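Page 42, continued from yesterday. The earlier attempt failed because a stray header line got pasted into the input along with the sequence. Redoing it now with the clean sequence only.
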Amino acid sequence: MPSILVLSEHDVRRFLPMAECIELMADALADLARGDAVLPLRTVAWLPDRRGALATMPALLPGRGALGAKVITVFPGNAATALDSHQGAVLLFEPERGRLLAVLDASSITAIRTAAVSGVATRLLARGDADDLAILGSGVQARAHLEAMLAVRPIRRVRVWSRTPEHARRFAEQAAAAGIAVEPTATAEAAVEGATIVCTTTAATEPALRGAWLAPGAHVNAVGSSTPAARELDSDAVARSRLYVDRRESALAEAGDFLAPKREGRIDDAHIVAELGDVLIGASGGRGSPDEVTLFKSLGLAIEDVAAARHVYERAVAAGAGTAVELGGGRSAV
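This time it went through. C-alpha coordinates are written below.
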Protein backbone atom coordinates (compact mmCIF):
# COMPACT_ATOMS: atom_id res chain seq x y z
CA MET A 1 0.00 0.00 0.00
CA PRO A 2 1.49 3.40 -0.98
CA SER A 3 2.26 5.66 1.98
CA ILE A 4 1.75 9.41 2.12
CA LEU A 5 4.00 11.76 4.07
CA VAL A 6 2.27 14.24 6.37
CA LEU A 7 4.40 17.33 7.00
CA SER A 8 3.54 19.70 9.83
CA GLU A 9 4.02 23.43 10.27
CA HIS A 10 7.25 22.66 12.11
CA ASP A 11 8.46 20.53 9.19
CA VAL A 12 7.66 23.26 6.66
CA ARG A 13 9.48 25.95 8.63
CA ARG A 14 12.46 23.64 9.14
CA PHE A 15 12.86 22.81 5.46
CA LEU A 16 11.76 26.10 3.87
CA PRO A 17 14.05 28.86 5.20
CA MET A 18 13.31 32.29 3.76
CA ALA A 19 16.54 32.69 1.77
CA GLU A 20 16.02 29.34 0.04
CA CYS A 21 12.37 30.10 -0.61
CA ILE A 22 13.21 33.42 -2.29
CA GLU A 23 15.40 31.60 -4.83
CA LEU A 24 12.77 28.88 -5.24
CA MET A 25 10.05 31.47 -5.97
CA ALA A 26 12.25 33.25 -8.51
CA ASP A 27 12.73 29.95 -10.36
CA ALA A 28 8.98 29.15 -10.30
CA LEU A 29 8.00 32.60 -11.58
CA ALA A 30 10.61 32.35 -14.34
CA ASP A 31 9.16 28.96 -15.34
CA LEU A 32 5.72 30.58 -15.56
CA ALA A 33 7.03 33.37 -17.77
CA ARG A 34 8.66 30.85 -20.10
CA GLY A 35 5.42 28.89 -20.42
CA ASP A 36 6.72 25.95 -18.41
CA ALA A 37 3.77 25.80 -16.00
CA VAL A 38 0.09 24.92 -15.99
CA LEU A 39 -1.83 27.36 -13.78
CA PRO A 40 -5.63 27.61 -13.83
CA LEU A 41 -7.25 30.48 -11.97
CA ARG A 42 -8.21 29.63 -8.42
CA THR A 43 -11.81 28.80 -7.58
CA VAL A 44 -13.38 30.43 -4.52
CA ALA A 45 -16.59 29.40 -2.76
CA TRP A 46 -17.85 32.05 -0.32
CA LEU A 47 -19.97 31.43 2.73
CA PRO A 48 -23.40 33.05 2.34
CA ASP A 49 -22.55 35.81 4.84
CA ARG A 50 -19.11 36.39 3.22
CA ARG A 51 -17.31 35.80 6.54
CA GLY A 52 -14.94 33.42 4.81
CA ALA A 53 -14.28 31.32 1.77
CA LEU A 54 -12.92 27.99 0.57
CA ALA A 55 -10.29 28.35 -2.16
CA THR A 56 -8.83 25.65 -4.42
CA MET A 57 -5.57 26.35 -6.26
CA PRO A 58 -4.14 23.66 -8.60
CA ALA A 59 -0.84 23.86 -10.51
CA LEU A 60 1.70 21.83 -12.44
CA LEU A 61 5.42 22.51 -12.91
CA PRO A 62 6.42 19.67 -15.28
CA GLY A 63 10.14 20.45 -15.26
CA ARG A 64 10.26 20.25 -11.47
CA GLY A 65 8.13 17.13 -11.05
CA ALA A 66 5.62 19.15 -9.06
CA LEU A 67 1.89 18.53 -9.41
CA GLY A 68 -0.51 19.58 -6.71
CA ALA A 69 -3.10 21.87 -5.24
CA LYS A 70 -3.60 24.05 -2.22
CA VAL A 71 -6.98 23.86 -0.55
CA ILE A 72 -7.52 26.51 2.11
CA THR A 73 -10.10 28.48 3.98
CA VAL A 74 -9.68 32.25 4.19
CA PHE A 75 -11.33 33.92 7.19
CA PRO A 76 -10.03 37.51 7.57
CA GLY A 77 -11.84 37.86 10.90
CA ASN A 78 -9.44 35.36 12.45
CA ALA A 79 -6.99 38.21 12.97
CA ALA A 80 -8.76 38.79 16.30
CA THR A 81 -8.46 35.13 17.34
CA ALA A 82 -5.78 32.52 17.95
CA LEU A 83 -6.31 31.15 14.44
CA ASP A 84 -4.55 32.13 11.23
CA SER A 85 -6.69 33.72 8.51
CA HIS A 86 -5.41 31.08 6.02
CA GLN A 87 -5.77 27.41 7.00
CA GLY A 88 -5.64 24.22 5.00
CA ALA A 89 -3.32 21.83 3.21
CA VAL A 90 -1.14 21.54 0.13
CA LEU A 91 -1.50 18.20 -1.64
CA LEU A 92 1.60 17.11 -3.56
CA PHE A 93 1.37 14.44 -6.28
CA GLU A 94 3.94 12.90 -8.61
CA PRO A 95 3.14 13.53 -12.30
CA GLU A 96 4.11 10.10 -13.66
CA ARG A 97 1.16 8.10 -12.30
CA GLY A 98 -0.62 10.66 -10.16
CA ARG A 99 0.33 9.17 -6.80
CA LEU A 100 -0.30 11.37 -3.77
CA LEU A 101 3.09 11.95 -2.13
CA ALA A 102 2.47 14.34 0.72
CA VAL A 103 0.03 16.48 2.64
CA LEU A 104 1.63 19.66 3.97
CA ASP A 105 0.51 22.44 6.28
CA ALA A 106 -0.70 25.28 4.07
CA SER A 107 -0.61 28.13 6.60
CA SER A 108 3.17 28.02 6.95
CA ILE A 109 3.77 27.51 3.24
CA THR A 110 1.50 30.46 2.43
CA ALA A 111 3.21 32.72 4.95
CA ILE A 112 6.73 31.94 3.81
CA ARG A 113 6.22 31.81 0.05
CA THR A 114 4.11 35.02 -0.04
CA ALA A 115 6.83 37.00 1.71
CA ALA A 116 9.50 35.29 -0.39
CA VAL A 117 7.81 36.46 -3.61
CA SER A 118 7.76 39.99 -2.19
CA GLY A 119 11.46 39.46 -1.55
CA VAL A 120 11.93 38.62 -5.23
CA ALA A 121 9.96 41.75 -6.21
CA THR A 122 11.95 43.95 -3.84
CA ARG A 123 15.25 42.58 -5.11
CA LEU A 124 14.17 43.31 -8.70
CA LEU A 125 12.39 46.64 -8.28
CA ALA A 126 13.47 48.50 -5.14
CA ARG A 127 16.38 50.89 -5.28
CA GLY A 128 19.68 49.33 -4.36
CA ASP A 129 20.04 51.74 -1.44
CA ALA A 130 16.51 51.15 -0.09
CA ASP A 131 16.94 50.72 3.65
CA ASP A 132 13.89 52.32 5.33
CA LEU A 133 11.04 49.80 5.72
CA ALA A 134 7.40 50.47 6.60
CA ILE A 135 5.04 47.59 7.34
CA LEU A 136 1.29 48.17 7.52
CA GLY A 137 -0.24 45.30 9.47
CA SER A 138 1.20 43.27 12.33
CA GLY A 139 0.14 39.66 11.75
CA VAL A 140 1.61 36.57 10.15
CA GLN A 141 2.48 38.25 6.86
CA ALA A 142 3.99 41.28 8.61
CA ARG A 143 6.41 39.00 10.47
CA ALA A 144 7.27 37.02 7.34
CA HIS A 145 7.78 40.19 5.30
CA LEU A 146 10.16 41.63 7.86
CA GLU A 147 12.29 38.51 7.46
CA ALA A 148 12.10 38.63 3.66
CA MET A 149 13.00 42.32 3.41
CA LEU A 150 15.99 41.80 5.69
CA ALA A 151 17.12 39.02 3.35
CA VAL A 152 17.23 41.22 0.23
CA ARG A 153 18.10 44.74 1.41
CA PRO A 154 20.35 46.19 4.18
CA ILE A 155 17.44 47.52 6.22
CA ARG A 156 18.45 50.37 8.57
CA ARG A 157 15.05 51.41 9.96
CA VAL A 158 11.73 49.60 10.43
CA ARG A 159 8.36 51.13 11.32
CA VAL A 160 5.11 49.25 11.82
CA TRP A 161 1.47 50.37 12.03
CA SER A 162 -1.61 48.37 12.96
CA ARG A 163 -5.26 49.35 13.34
CA THR A 164 -4.87 47.91 16.85
CA PRO A 165 -1.98 49.78 18.51
CA GLU A 166 -1.37 46.97 20.98
CA HIS A 167 -0.72 44.60 18.09
CA ALA A 168 1.91 46.96 16.67
CA ARG A 169 3.60 47.19 20.09
CA ARG A 170 3.58 43.40 20.42
CA PHE A 171 5.08 43.07 16.94
CA ALA A 172 7.88 45.46 17.93
CA GLU A 173 8.52 43.55 21.15
CA GLN A 174 8.76 40.23 19.30
CA ALA A 175 11.16 41.76 16.78
CA ALA A 176 13.27 43.21 19.59
CA ALA A 177 13.54 39.74 21.14
CA ALA A 178 15.10 38.65 17.84
CA GLY A 179 17.49 41.60 17.86
CA ILE A 180 15.57 43.76 15.35
CA ALA A 181 14.58 47.33 16.28
CA VAL A 182 11.05 48.21 15.13
CA GLU A 183 9.23 51.49 15.81
CA PRO A 184 5.43 51.29 16.30
CA THR A 185 3.65 54.35 14.88
CA ALA A 186 0.29 55.87 15.73
CA THR A 187 -0.79 56.27 12.10
CA ALA A 188 -0.16 54.57 8.78
CA GLU A 189 1.04 57.87 7.35
CA ALA A 190 3.69 58.18 10.06
CA ALA A 191 4.93 54.68 9.25
CA VAL A 192 5.18 55.36 5.52
CA GLU A 193 6.68 58.87 5.60
CA GLY A 194 10.08 58.74 3.89
CA ALA A 195 10.09 54.94 3.62
CA THR A 196 11.86 53.44 0.63
CA ILE A 197 10.14 50.04 0.98
CA VAL A 198 6.49 49.69 2.03
CA CYS A 199 4.76 46.35 2.66
CA THR A 200 0.97 46.34 3.08
CA THR A 201 -0.05 43.15 4.88
CA THR A 202 -3.43 44.15 6.31
CA ALA A 203 -6.90 42.63 6.22
CA ALA A 204 -8.28 45.98 5.05
CA THR A 205 -11.09 46.17 2.52
CA GLU A 206 -10.71 49.96 2.12
CA PRO A 207 -7.41 51.76 1.46
CA ALA A 208 -4.88 51.77 4.29
CA LEU A 209 -2.15 53.32 2.11
CA ARG A 210 -2.52 56.58 0.19
CA GLY A 211 -0.40 57.59 -2.75
CA ALA A 212 0.19 61.06 -1.36
CA TRP A 213 2.22 59.53 1.47
CA LEU A 214 4.72 57.72 -0.76
CA ALA A 215 8.19 59.17 -1.09
CA PRO A 216 9.81 59.45 -4.54
CA GLY A 217 11.65 56.24 -5.34
CA ALA A 218 9.65 54.07 -2.94
CA HIS A 219 8.84 50.45 -3.68
CA VAL A 220 5.54 48.96 -2.47
CA ASN A 221 4.64 45.30 -1.95
CA ALA A 222 0.82 45.05 -1.72
CA VAL A 223 -0.12 41.60 -0.43
CA GLY A 224 -3.01 41.84 2.01
CA SER A 225 -6.01 41.82 -0.36
CA SER A 226 -6.71 39.09 -2.91
CA THR A 227 -10.34 39.60 -3.99
CA PRO A 228 -11.98 42.04 -6.43
CA ALA A 229 -13.91 43.76 -3.63
CA ALA A 230 -10.99 44.43 -1.27
CA ARG A 231 -8.18 46.95 -1.57
CA GLU A 232 -5.32 48.24 0.58
CA LEU A 233 -4.15 51.06 -1.73
CA ASP A 234 -6.03 54.13 -2.87
CA SER A 235 -6.26 54.94 -6.57
CA ASP A 236 -3.56 57.61 -6.37
CA ALA A 237 -1.04 55.07 -5.07
CA VAL A 238 -1.72 52.71 -7.97
CA ALA A 239 -1.96 55.39 -10.67
CA ARG A 240 1.36 57.01 -9.75
CA SER A 241 3.22 53.68 -9.61
CA ARG A 242 4.98 51.52 -12.14
CA LEU A 243 2.86 48.38 -11.59
CA TYR A 244 4.09 44.78 -11.65
CA VAL A 245 2.08 41.65 -10.83
CA ASP A 246 2.72 37.97 -10.16
CA ARG A 247 0.36 37.05 -13.00
CA ARG A 248 -1.49 39.36 -15.37
CA GLU A 249 -4.54 37.08 -15.79
CA SER A 250 -5.01 36.85 -12.04
CA ALA A 251 -4.64 40.60 -11.51
CA LEU A 252 -7.24 41.38 -14.19
CA ALA A 253 -9.72 39.01 -12.55
CA GLU A 254 -9.01 39.26 -8.83
CA ALA A 255 -6.97 42.29 -7.73
CA GLY A 256 -9.19 44.89 -6.08
CA ASP A 257 -6.18 47.20 -5.77
CA PHE A 258 -6.03 47.24 -9.58
CA LEU A 259 -9.72 46.88 -10.44
CA ALA A 260 -10.93 49.79 -8.28
CA PRO A 261 -8.86 52.51 -9.99
CA LYS A 262 -9.63 50.86 -13.33
CA ARG A 263 -13.38 51.24 -12.66
CA GLU A 264 -12.76 54.89 -11.79
CA GLY A 265 -11.05 55.44 -15.15
CA ARG A 266 -7.72 56.27 -13.53
CA ILE A 267 -5.86 53.40 -15.24
CA ASP A 268 -6.43 50.70 -17.84
CA ASP A 269 -5.02 47.21 -18.43
CA ALA A 270 -1.89 48.67 -20.02
CA HIS A 271 -0.95 50.13 -16.64
CA ILE A 272 0.42 46.69 -15.73
CA VAL A 273 4.03 46.88 -16.90
CA ALA A 274 4.86 43.18 -16.60
CA GLU A 275 4.77 40.04 -14.53
CA LEU A 276 7.71 39.47 -12.20
CA GLY A 277 8.69 36.43 -14.23
CA ASP A 278 9.10 38.62 -17.33
CA VAL A 279 11.64 40.72 -15.47
CA LEU A 280 13.42 37.61 -14.21
CA ILE A 281 13.93 36.20 -17.71
CA GLY A 282 14.81 39.57 -19.25
CA ALA A 283 11.62 39.97 -21.28
CA SER A 284 10.77 43.23 -19.48
CA GLY A 285 12.69 45.90 -17.64
CA GLY A 286 12.35 46.86 -14.01
CA ARG A 287 12.73 50.23 -12.31
CA GLY A 288 13.24 53.01 -14.84
CA SER A 289 14.60 55.79 -12.61
CA PRO A 290 15.65 56.36 -8.99
CA ASP A 291 12.63 58.59 -8.27
CA GLU A 292 9.76 56.56 -9.72
CA VAL A 293 7.48 54.58 -7.42
CA THR A 294 7.31 50.86 -8.15
CA LEU A 295 4.44 48.63 -7.01
CA PHE A 296 4.21 44.86 -6.85
CA LYS A 297 0.64 43.61 -6.52
CA SER A 298 0.72 40.08 -5.12
CA LEU A 299 -2.22 37.70 -5.32
CA GLY A 300 -0.42 34.44 -4.61
CA LEU A 301 -0.11 31.65 -7.17
CA ALA A 302 -0.52 27.91 -6.87
CA ILE A 303 2.83 27.32 -8.60
CA GLU A 304 4.43 29.00 -5.58
CA ASP A 305 2.70 26.60 -3.18
CA VAL A 306 3.46 23.52 -5.27
CA ALA A 307 7.10 24.46 -5.82
CA ALA A 308 7.50 25.06 -2.10
CA ALA A 309 5.77 21.76 -1.28
CA ARG A 310 8.04 19.79 -3.62
CA HIS A 311 11.12 21.38 -2.04
CA VAL A 312 9.95 20.66 1.50
CA TYR A 313 9.00 17.09 0.57
CA GLU A 314 12.40 16.32 -0.93
CA ARG A 315 14.22 17.80 2.06
CA ALA A 316 11.97 15.92 4.50
CA VAL A 317 12.48 12.58 2.74
CA ALA A 318 16.25 13.06 2.81
CA ALA A 319 16.10 13.86 6.54
CA GLY A 320 13.67 11.06 7.41
CA ALA A 321 11.16 13.62 8.73
CA GLY A 322 7.38 13.70 8.68
CA THR A 323 4.75 11.09 9.46
CA ALA A 324 3.91 8.34 6.96
CA VAL A 325 0.26 7.28 6.70
CA GLU A 326 -1.71 5.02 4.37
CA LEU A 327 -4.62 6.66 2.58
CA GLY A 328 -5.15 4.14 -0.20
CA GLY A 329 -4.59 4.56 -3.90
CA GLY A 330 -3.00 1.15 -4.48
CA ARG A 331 -4.76 -1.83 -6.03
CA SER A 332 -5.86 -4.35 -3.46
CA ALA A 333 -5.18 -8.01 -4.19
CA VAL A 334 -8.31 -9.96 -5.13
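Notes: The longest helix spans residues 106-125.
Reminder to self: strip header lines before submitting.
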